[in-house]
Design goal:
By secondary structure, the protein is α+β, with helices and mostly antiparallel strands. The chain has one domain. It is built from one helix and five strands, in the order E-E-H-E-E-E. It has a five-stranded mixed β-sheet, with no helix packed on it.
Length: 138
């Protein structure tokens, strides 16, 4: 998600998250929605989905353009004129979108991500968090 639509969410590490009652200093990955519409109406959700779809399609079109340029003789067709994929282009061969790095907590601390506690030193799963508060900034 962060690679395809980087402006959709804000990612940051925080300590002392409300609702967390653990001793010690634990960091939590906080994901907030970036939206002009604080209520997230149906119109804004459809707009966000369309932006995500367009960005994902642009990635596939880049791989299609690379494929066309590798043919003998090379084909050069502007993206806006492409109506369908070349018969020899397999969309299944398009590599997976690379994951964008998330903000990391300071070295040697614990971070809670989607209910799992991960030690950043050992990089191992320790336990399932019993309470993961949902947080949304308005």
């Amino acid at each position: 998600m962060k690679t395809v639509y980087p402006d959709a969410y804000t990612f940051r590490q925080e300590t002392n998250v409300p609702g967390e009652y653990s001793a010690g200093r634990h960091y939590h990955l906080i994901i907030t929605i970036n939206s002009e519409d604080p209520q997230l109406s149906a119109v804004s959700l459809v707009r966000r989905r369309q932006i995500f779809r367009d960005n994902l399609l642009a990635i596939v079109k880049k791989h299609h353009r690379d494929f066309l340029s590798s043919l003998d003789p090379p084909l050069e067709i502007p993206d806006h004129k492409v109506l369908r994929w070349h018969a020899g282009f397999s969309t299944d061969s398009v590599p997976a979108v690379e994951a964008a790095p998330l903000p990391a907590p300071p070295f040697g601390t614990y971070v809670y991500v989607i209910g799992l506690a991960i030690n950043t030193v050992e990089v191992s799963l320790l336990h399932v968090a019993t309470f993961m508060p949902l947080r949304r900034e308005v």
